Model the fold of this input.
Amino acid sequence: MSCHLFNRTRTRRDFLRASACGFGHLALSAMAASGSQVSGPPGPHFAPRAKRVIFLFMWGGPSHVDLFDPKPRLTHDSGKTLHGVDVGLEKETVGQMLGSPFQFKPHGASGQWISELFPNLARHADELCVIRSMHTNGTAHGEALLRLHTGAANLVRPSVGAWVSYGLGSDNANLPAFVTISPPRGHGGVQNYGNAFLPAIHQGSVIGSAETPIAQAVISNLKNARQDPASQRLQLDLIQSLNREHLHETSGDRGVQGLIENYELAYRMQSTMPQIMGLDDESEATRSMYGIGSGPTDNAARQCLLARKLAERGVRYIQVSTDYTWDHHNKVNDGHRAECAKVDQPVAALLQDLKQRGMLIDTLVIWGGEFGRTPTAENADGRGHHPQAFSIWMAGGGVRGGLTYGATDDFGYRPVENAVHMHDLHATILHTLGFDHERLTYRHAGRDFRLTDVEGRVVHGILA
Amino acid sequence: MKPYAAQEKLIADLDALLAHPPGIPPRAMVPSDVEKPADECVRKAGQFDQRAAVVPRGFLPVLGGGKTPVIPENRSGRVELAQWLTDPEHGAGNLTARVLANRIWYHLIGQGIVKSVDNFGRSGELPSHPELLDFLAGGLLQSHWSVKSLVRQVVLSRTFAMATEPAGDVAEAEKADPDNRWLWKANRQRLDPESLRDAILLLSGKLDLARVESTVAYLGDQATAVGDNKNRRRTDFNCRSIYLPVIRNDLPEVFAAFDFTNPHTTMGARPRTISPAQALFLMNDEMVMGAAEAAAKSFISRGGGPKIEEVFEQILGTLPTPEEQLQIADFVLGTAARLTREGKPDPLLQAWAMACQALFSSSRFQFID
Done:
């Protein structure tokens, strides 16, 4: 048996491995084991305005003309035919206009226009930066979701969260950098939070899935159904002493060393994750501010509070997804009324909570769906998919609150001022985190890849 | 003679056939040419609905000495492409053989002769042993693309037989070639998820080695459906891992945790990572615990009860050190005593089951030394 365990720390790789810890460390181990080039996370290129991102994803496509982009003319002409010439299309008719029945009012000192469906959110109008001129590609949910989450629909690319994890690494040795709460299984599924060619450590860690209430969500294999923690610790001690014997025999093999540390991390996760996921340690005031326990808000309330707890503990990119409930091809009024009632209070509480804790200043909160909905009617009382124009809002880290950015035409059909493409949104998110989107690259298959491919420009007009 | 006797016999034959139809013969999906093959147009940025110029089908003239095959008017060119790909004289056969030989070498040795297995060109890495690569590729061509012959050739080599920790003084080799690029020892390889699961099931005595017709038939169109998939895929089969369902958005846990190739894309080399999901799988997954209990049961049922040396060797393929023997004995006795005190059923079986699970989880089980 060889006894020169400590003689072989010889490469830069080993040094980096030995000097890091936790999740970042494992990423390094993983790369070392795969023989790829190893370095720490690239880190920001310039001073960041945001340290983390919370993305509130409204799956299905919220209707911009009913929520953030009031169109008096559309309401006035409701029922009439929208002609192609009205919106710069060559075709004769586009469809029958469907005006929004919802009242819009200016809110806050900034006079931000918000629909009556968001009474709680409206109280934070001066924090919101509403972009009315978003546009994307993909009329189908699958394509639009993939573009929103990864920037590409026809090729497998890392998701935004994976890029952020790669760029910044984790801020907490016991938690991953990228967590996705209740992600959709369909419309691209895992690809929407996947790491693609980035090291697997950057894949989104999944809590639950969209169709499962978050109160019942579990993290796969986080709990042993047969043993209590004390008994499992004794078993783990046996595993680890066998592993150390193996490590000794292999003269300190990197992979074996990585496995040993990995078991300790997993064991710590078993106790830290349930602590975070259990919301009982939050005060009753906080729980009721979010709307836990009270009817339609319960699920989103739990999701948003969990997102805040993860943000507080150093997770860099947190996505919260609704179920596939915003796709109102029929009865869009009833549908949107119901969906807004689910998220209005929880999302407003999240902003309030972040503000109270002094975290909104360096947390970028983003609210939006994969596309908007048509200003014309579908099935008489519904709206179709509309990637040509839609609204999202951002708040917090590095963006200007109380700003309405960009504009659509009189019908909300297409952007007519300061159009912002999905690639531009991605470039801007990276910018708030301190990254030049053209320089945050990863070498794969012989070339450097980036989130925005050959597109994207930072929307400087919305930056604080 | 009865009128219509011949017809009646035909009808009787048909009835018999319908009553006992012959089984459906084995089927495989194959591509076939469309009736009128035509050239495709470029789709801008890969978007199916963004059409640009039509480009005639053709071949890379840089390969095969400049002369490229002509695709007959009424043919798709699929056959010509297959021939060209494997033709060393007038096509890409030499390159194909090198790429294939390199991949087989990579799977067996743990490191490609060209390290960038998925990138075999100008922007990829240079081969460490170009003559060896040509020798293996040449053999592949001579054997008419016999993968089996090439595998045999490699596994019978001295290189394949080397140890990961060679005896004797290796200080000089360590210093000169710390990354083992010149193959002075074997690479320590991680067990892939299929082998890991198969090995655990084999030791539990549950592994079903028979071919399985389908592990997705029960899903119906849910196997390909998007949106809310209520009918979840199962993985609780005891079949070999190769038959497990691969639903792109819903991989079996063991695949998702342990670096199964991303099913959305093609990949010659799988990623090799260490992640907490792997440790959590081995510590807590029901399949692993069930297999450990079954293995423990079979060890206990052997005459004279389980012997630590035997259990260790069966699971890890090597003998325990005296210290390891002692640790396992301590663990089993201590756990059994504790479970007895707590009034738990089958304390000895459960103690052994936990010990077997610990061996499944150990680094020796996950690495091939």
Notes: Chain A touches chain B through 70 residues (CB under 8 Å). Confidence is low (pLDDT under 50) at residues 1-22, 27-38 of chain A. The CA atoms of residues 44 and 435 of chain A lie 5 Å apart. Chain A has 13 helices and 19 strands.
